Amino acid sequence: MDKKKVIKFTALVLGMSWVLQIIVCLISLNVEGYASTLVFQAGMALCMFMPLIAAIISKAGVKSIGWKPKLKGNVKWIFFAILVPVVFTFLGIAVFFAIWPDLFSMDGSYMLKTVEQAGIDPAEYMESMNQQGMTMETLMLITVVQCVTYAPFVNMFLAVGEEAGWRGFLYPELRKKYSRVVTWLIGGAVWAAFHFPAMLIAGYEYGKDYIGAPVLGLVAFTLTCIIWGMFHEVVYDKTKCIWIPALLHGAINASATLFQLVLNGNREDEIAKLIIFGPAPHGLISMIPALIIAVITGIIVLKEDKKKAAVIPAAS
Description:
The chain contains 14 helices and no strands. By secondary structure, the protein is mainly alpha-helical.
């Protein structure tokens, strides 16, 4: 492991992204209506390219991370990248509502409150839906279809900015010195820390009124990044193509807001406190299915590594 490059990369990516997030969050908090949402979204989109920029400045050799798309032998991993986030999202939603069934609703009330917070008139939004002959059930179906068709590919072009730094450089570099498990832990912690200013200042991911705020949110999101970082690392290791973990990252972002369609907006205060537990995929309760499958996957991958290590001496 090139320790100097890893330290330089980590310092650069966190430094640049934190400064950018602080500026963007402060501006968005002082702008009203939809403009606030646009400023924040644009700033976070730009922030996704900080890992790639940091890797280039650190001379991390990003040219050789697999920029050429590879379909041969990787089709199953492409389907994995597209479908797994949605499956985990619905499993997490099911676990959360099994504990808090009263918070479930298909009337779209919570989504409409989210729309209003984004600076969009809910009445106009509903009128637009009615004109198109859409119901909340139809919207849910369309959203799910989007999540497993084109949305991951659209998001992939932003996500590759992160993946080029995380999976293209940081994780492989850590693997030169540490075990897979340690790499997953360190890499996931750095990936999570990348988001901390937006979480602390703007309430990104969990808001600010949840139980245990703000520390528990940082812990929960770190666990989330460790889990998903493991899946990303495995996908990249198997495919050697940076676009496929970027596709997985894009699919996660696409499905991350599905939970808003099934929450009871009339219980907004209670939801604000419990959002740390779910039903979003990064909730402490809703992440349990992903955690279980991650542990199983990790065990399988580690066993494969042991088999490969045992074959090498025998072949020599």
